[in-house]
Structure formats: structure tokens, C-alpha cells
Amino acid sequence: MKTDRRHELQTNVLADWIGKHLQQSQGYSKTVLAFILLAAAAAIAGSFLIKDQAARSQASWNQFFQAFGERDPEALGIVAAANQGSTASVWAYLAEADLKLAEGIGDLYTNRDNAKKNLQEAEKDYLAVDRSATEKLLRERAWFGLGQTYESLADIDKAKEYYGKLISSAPTSALGKEAQRRSDVLSDPSTAKWYNWFANQTPRPPAIPGMPDGLGVPDLPGDLSELSDRPDLSLPGLPTTSVDPVSVPPSTDPVAEPDLNSPASESDSADSETASPTPEKGTESAAEKPAAPVVGDTPAEPPAPESVPAASDSPVEPAASPAGEDASE
């Protein structure tokens, strides 16, 4: 009995407390409802904003990777300027600075004006990375790039300053060790002297081996009338003849045509056939010398004198036989 009474009393007290607070909150019901609606709207807007930022970030990275794959400094600069405040923008500035630095170092040996321009643009991009980067790795890479840039511009003090920042930040990293090595080299007075000498040089583009200076193209006549009528076709290393065919006058003597019906031509051809027999090996020496007179009872008959054949006569047989045949008889 006492337990039921106690429970009833506790129920009444709870009901009174709830009723009392409900009466007090009736004036704030609209405010609470408005707060709940505002919280829901903020949550929805925040979700949309997060999705939009993710989409923009993905687009900026796509643009960065496309420009970086093309190795185009101008495209990287456009990506960096169009996505200010994003991580992709910082990486675009860093990649553009690296390309400008490499191009500027290469131009130091051929074109100092282009080299100075590229190095100054690399300096500007590295400083932008140093100001806006939130990652330690990006700042360290920017410091190392600035050290190389000032070293290429022969500004030894600034180069050692940025190398020193990198050494203090990451002394055991690969970039930190390389920065320490470069700082030690620049501390040598002879190195600073060499950089001062190199900064005052004016290099020219290299000429093609075996060709004249300039563009490597020999001087050509501007007027076609200056070209030679007869180009030099002589080969190198071979003797050349200086015979001018124009200086040799052509022959004016008429060429006599042979008369095939003349007996003289027939006799000449017959004489040429019989007058030049080929001596044998044994009688070669005897044919070269005049034959000795044949020893005998009667002296040899003298050779008959040659007579000019008349036009109507037939060809005359040779009066004397070769010396080798007389000796054998």
C-alpha cells in the first residue's frame, strides 16, 4: 500500500515538471524550429560546396598533368594562374620554374639575353612557391631551385642563403646534402672568381664543323649572272689539267679521203701485209741486225732497185725478202 502511494507521488512530480517546462518553452518554439531549419540548410549547402571543391580540384589536377606531360612552361603558367590557392597551382608554379631554370642554364652558353630572361622567370615562380606552399617538401624544392637560379646568375651570396635554408631544414635529405656540397663549392674564392669571369663573357652559337662562322652556310652570289659558266668538277686529291679548249684553234686543213679504186692503195695494202712478217724467237736478233753477205764462190746479186709502179701496172712484188730468209737459203 505504501509502495503504490509512493509511486503515484513520484509520477505526479514528473508530470508537474514536464508541464511546467512545456509552458515555459511555448514562447521559444518558433526560434527552435528556425534554428533546426537553418542547421539543415547549412548541412546541405556544405555538402554541395564540398562536392564542388572536389570537382574543381580534380579538374585542376587534370589540367596540371596535361600541361606537365607536354613539358610546356606557358601551359603550366596558365594552370597556375587559373587555380590560385589550390595545391595543383603550387605544383604548376614549381614545374614551370624547373623548366625555365633548365632552359636558362642551357642558354648561358649560346644566348645570354634569353638565359637572363628565363632565369628571372624561374626566380619569380620559385618565390611564388615559397610564399604559397603549405607542404615542407615544396618549400625545400623551391629553396634549392632558388639557389641554382642565383648561382646561374652569378649571385653567390643569395645562392648560399637559400642553400643554407635547405641545409637547416633537411640536412640529411638528398636535396640537403646536395645543397651542402654546392655551398662548400661556392665558399671557395676561386669559384667566385670564376663565376665573375663567366658572367662577363658573351658566347656565340657554335659553328658547324668544316663550315664558316655564323650560320654555317657559305656566301652565295646574289645575282645569277655571277655564277661561272663551267663549274669546277675536279675531284679532291687528283691532278687537274689546265687546258682551255677555247685557246686551241680548230684545224682548217681538209681531211683527204682515201681513193679505194687507186692501185697505189692496193699496193700499199699488199706491201703492209708482206713487209712485216713476225720473226720467230730464234731469229729475232738476226732480224734486228742487217744480214751478213753469204760466203760462197759467187757474190750475191745486188737487190734490184725499186721502181714506182705506173697507174696501169699491177702491184709489184717486193724485190728482196726479209733478211732472215736470205740467211737460211
| CATH structural fold name of the domain at 46-199 | Serine Threonine Protein Phosphatase 5, Tetratricopeptide repeat
Mean pLDDT reading = 72
How many DSSP helices? 12
Cα-to-Cα separation, first versus last residue: 191 Å
How would you describe this protein?
With 329 residues, this protein is mostly helical. The protein has a domain at 46-199: Serine Threonine Protein Phosphatase 5, Tetratricopeptide repeat (Alpha Horseshoe). The chain is 60% helix and 0% strand. The protein has twelve helices and no strands. The chain has helices at 2-25, 29-70, 73-82, 87-107, 112-132, 136-152, 156-169, 174-186, 189-199, 263-274, 284-288, 323-328. Helix 2 packs antiparallel against helix 3 (73-82) and helix 7 (156-169) packs antiparallel against helix 8 (174-186). The longest helix is centred in the N-terminal third of the chain and has 42 residues, at 29-70. It is elongated, with a radius of gyration of 57 Å. Residues 214-218, 272-277, 279-300 and 307-329 have low confidence and may be disordered.
Brief write-up:
60% of the residues lie in helices and 0% in strands. With 329 residues, the chain is mainly α.
